[in-house]
Amino acid sequence: MGLTTRRSGRWRWASLLGATALAVSAGGALACPAGAAGTDVDFATHCIPPAIAGLPPIDGTTTATVSADNTSPKVGDTVTVTYTVVGAAASNPTDLALPADIMTPTGKVTLGGAQSGDITVAGPKKNPPVPGKAAFPSFSMTGTFTVTKAGKITLAPGDYNIHTSYIMELDTPCTVTNPPAPASETITATAGVPANTRAITLGSASGEPGASVEVSGTGFTPGAAVTLAGRSGTSQTGDTASVSADGQGSFSGSLVVHDTSTTGIVAYEGDSWNADTGAGPAAYVVDAPVPPGSQKLTTSVTAGTLAMTQAGDSVALSGVDFGQGGASTGALQTVTVKDFRGGPAGWSLTGRVTDFTGPGGKIGADRLSWTPSCASKAGSPSTCTAGSAGPVGSSGATLAGTADGTLTGGEFTVDAGLSLDVPAFTPPGGYSGVLTLTLS
Predict the structure, then answer these.
(1) Which of 11, 107, 274, 421 lies 20 to 30 Å from 331 when distance is taken between CA atoms?
(2) 17 has a pLDDT exceeding 50
């Protein structure tokens, strides 16, 4: 479709992976999922309408916001970035109305400061109907990048493209006229603890009592003394051996395994096992002799992952009246957490919310409160604990979690009552913010 230089309105929609959009109503209608709020920036944009439109290039102004789900990451962390075009540099130039869900946006976010490069971002194929001659709606795109350097890293909106799939496939690319555009967000990265890249492999996964198993390792400190040891559950057995890592941090050695309760083998630097300086356990079992006329049966249990799902990605809070304000309430879409890792670590589910933006300005993020609740599915090794009731805010709060233990895991459902305290004389209109949930 062709474009004109009309600016988009400020109502928003968004679909964020791992985020829950909130919709509220002041004076009866604060609507909407919204893009993550941040610092809006304006920048000159050069757009090329589809050739079929017969229109010349358009030089206009784009208003956009870029935000990050973690503004204080460590080196090595993965950061999710949201690029929201609040007001596109153009609009629908024809009398032809565009139907819903035909727009697919893509673009890039430019990194500056301590780290440089571009992040590819993309949005869902989702939009409300666009009447003829009407402004294009706001849209959001998300992407990720890995932090590689400590320091302040700026995020600036970059080029974007609007692809429409209606009657025919058309693209409207828009580029930043004077790159880079102004920075919309700044994150401060700190040096993280170096990742433990040590790893071991075994020549066999089982053997008779007294058999020798070959153990190979990589990623250890060059020249370091390495202990090979058997493990029985979380305890070390009496079976040990010593090897030395070569100049590349690799080794190859053998361990004689006598203990019939052995469940795995580890390798570590130092005087005792430490997960930060070791590798494993690699699964290993001792084959007990099978009596005559008997058959030995074996099986295995494979560790899974820690993941969450949501019952939906938007919440419509109740409306409030101009001049009265008060609590705009609703309920968080139910979150299901599945911890199928089978290890000793618990988990934590936290959330933080952006300011609610609308035609009258902002309703502060600190005005959103929640009352969390959490239930554990019968048979789950862990017990889920709900976070404290109170403000969520931009700095975040704990929604639920489980404690560390000898063996953790299970399936859990997490809910929360939501309440936004809307000031009495908030100008009528649509206000929206984004609640981002993080599971770790």
Answers:
(1) 11
(2) no
